[in-house]
Amino acid sequence: MLRDAIAEPRQEPRQEPRQEILRTAARLFQQRGYDATSMNDVAAALKLSKGGLYHHFESKDEILFHIMSHAMQITEDRVINVVRRIDGARVDAVEERCAR
Length: 100
Description:
Helix content: over 70%
Distance between the termini: 70 Å
Oligomer: single chain
Radius of gyration: 22 Å
Number of strands: 0
């Protein structure tokens, strides 16, 4: 049994289904527009049944909410936290100068 596991070529791990849905929906929303993209369009692009899609998300609005939440997290990580570190460094420098 262990030999079988070693002999088989490794397959790349499949993306989490929710992440795959979010990426595909984001692409479709960008290409077609949010209003012009239906849950059927998203399901078809993923080769899922509509029921399979609804198993992961209750609505198109929920999908959009998760896409926007992810975008805001990226913005916070890449921009806001960097600015906070810069501002923090400036405050530290001013406090250091004042302590002299």
